[in-house]
């Protein structure tokens, strides 16, 4: 019996969440139309990305008063800024006059944000400071930039565009607190950023990042140090923990004997180690993910942070940062090419796979197949996705 009625639009059939749960119950992958429907994509941006915590950047990118960065939250542009009192603010990047984007750059430093159209000026905390030639009675206090929620976990800054109450970020990420604490992520700095354009639906990109069923066959650099045997055996060296309705998952990564970092050689790529590893703590590698789009993996000498930014039903931008110890110097303590090699190669291999899947699931001949024992995190994602969509009545 088929569980996949193909509708003209995924939104015209039964509720998306129910279809996902029906596939989940049978241990099947999802139907192809959930990856190829522009109308569903638009609903997902509202129901998922504009309702959840989305990673924006590292605190070191917002070290000084007036520093800002912009982030795409389900298609909505948001500014994260630091004001003169040192507070962080999440601001909707839309002018309160006639709607121009206030800033059109990924990051920078301002005294005030000045709208390029008619020069309304906003302080870094969003208050309107100046608006030329407005009529008598115009009250600037009525027109601050609209706000979104901000939260910081271990120096990683998140925003949440949800209009109402939001889940507590600290509570959502409580489970990996202890695991990630020794890396002292808050003190790290961004050594390198790479932005990848992937011609695939955001869910395919996320699913790919959740399983290593494909690793042996596709990631020769990654499995030089990642211990696939221990991973597949599911022994104690790989302890997967879920929380927050499976939106958060964290784990230690099993490395091969003798390896202390996820690098080409298993040896550190940076001579300066992160946090307590610099003081001799026994090395380990660990990951913490928060759906829908944040993933991080930290080794004693460097960390990598992924931010998935959906752009259309078949296009996803993946922004990747490599973090190192605050005092680590490029060309002295690490070589950027060496630092990024394993993940950059692995990423490119993954994107090629995701793009191939995108083309395949668009075929009318595609019928979702059964998930393997090594794809339980993909099933976990289906569960979270169904929950988020159901909460929006979808
Ligand atoms: Fe921004 Fe007019 S639209 S000042
Ligand atoms: Fe992969």
Folded structure, characterized:
The protein is an alpha+beta fold and 394 residues long. The protein folds into 2 domains: 54-160, Rieske Iron-sulfur Protein; 174-391, Naphthalene 1,2-dioxygenase Alpha Subunit, Chain A, domain 1, CATH 3.90.380. It contains 9 helices and 17 strands. The strands form 3 sheets. It has a 7-stranded antiparallel sheet, with no helix packed on it. The protein is globular, with a radius of gyration of 22 Å. The two termini are 24 Å apart. The model has no long low-confidence stretch (mean pLDDT 94).
In short, what is this structure?
The chain is built from 9 helices and 17 strands. The chain has 394 residues and is of the alpha+beta class. Helix 1 runs antiparallel to helix 9 and helix 5 crosses helix 8 (336-361).
Q: What profile does the largest beta sheet have?
A: 7 strands, antiparallel
User: What would you say the CATH architecture of the largest domain is?
Assistant: Alpha-Beta Complex
Number of domains: 2
Q: Can you identify the CATH class of the largest domain?
A: Alpha Beta
**What fraction of residues sit in β-strands?**
15-25%
Shape: globular
Bound molecules: FE2/S2 (inorganic) cluster, fe (iii) ion
- Per CATH, the superfamily of the largest domain is Naphthalene 1,2-dioxygenase Alpha Subunit, Chain A, domain 1
How many E-type strands? 17
In the sheet with the most strands, the strands line up as: 1-10-9-4-3-2-5
Structural classification: alpha+beta
Given as residue ranges, the uncertain stretches (5+ residues, pLDDT < 50) are none
Summarize the helix and strand pattern as letters: HHEEEEEEEEEEHHEHHHEEEEEEHH
């Amino acid at each position: 019996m088929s569980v996949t009625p193909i509708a003209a639009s995924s939104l015209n059939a039964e509720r998306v969440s129910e279809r996902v749960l029906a596939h989940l119950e049978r241990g099947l992958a999802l139907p192809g139309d959930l990856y190829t429907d522009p109308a569903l994509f638009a609903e997902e941006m509202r129901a998922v990305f504009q309702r959840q915590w989305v990673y924006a950047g590292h605190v070191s990118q917002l070290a000084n008063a007036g520093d800002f960065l912009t982030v795409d939250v389900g298609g909505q542009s948001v500014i994260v800024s630091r004001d003169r009192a040192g507070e962080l603010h999440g601001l909707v990047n839309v002018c309160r006059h006639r709607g121009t984007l206030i800033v059109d750059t990924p990051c920078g430093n301002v005294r005030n944000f000045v709208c390029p159209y008619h020069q309304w000026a906003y302080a870094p905390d969003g208050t309107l400071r100046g608006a030329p030639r407005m009529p008598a009675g115009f009250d600037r206090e009525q027109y601050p930039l609209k706000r979104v929620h901000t939260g910081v976990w271990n120096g990683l800054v998140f925003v949440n565009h949800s209009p109402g109450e939001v889940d507590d970020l600290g509570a959502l990420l409580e489970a990996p607190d202890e695991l990630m604490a020794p890396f002292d992520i808050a003190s790290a700095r961004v050594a390198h950023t790479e932005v990848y354009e992937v011609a695939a639906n955001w869910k395919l990109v996320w699913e790919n990042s959740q399983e290593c069923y494909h690793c042996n066959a596709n990631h020769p650099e990654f499995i030089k140090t990642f211990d696939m045997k221990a991973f597949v055996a599911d022994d104690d060296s790989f302890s997967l923990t879920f929380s927050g309705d499976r939106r958060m998952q964290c784990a230690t990564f099993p490395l091969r004997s003798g390896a202390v970092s996820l690098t080409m050689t298993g040896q550190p790529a940076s001579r300066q180690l992160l946090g307590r590893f610099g003081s001799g703590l026994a090395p380990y590698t660990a990951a913490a993910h928060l759906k829908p789009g944040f993933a991080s993996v930290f080794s004693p000498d460097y960390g990598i942070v992924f931010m998935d930014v959906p752009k259309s039903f078949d296009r996803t931008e993946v922004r990747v940062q490599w973090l190192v110890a605050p005092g680590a110097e490029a060309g002295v303590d690490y070589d950027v090419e060496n630092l990024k090699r394993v993940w950059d190669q692995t990423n490119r291999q993954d994107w090629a796979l995701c793009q191939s899947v995108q083309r395949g699931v668009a075929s009318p001949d595609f019928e979702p197949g059964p998930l393997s024992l090594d794809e339980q995190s993909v099933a976990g994602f289906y569960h979270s996705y169904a929950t988020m969509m159901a909460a929006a009545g979808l």
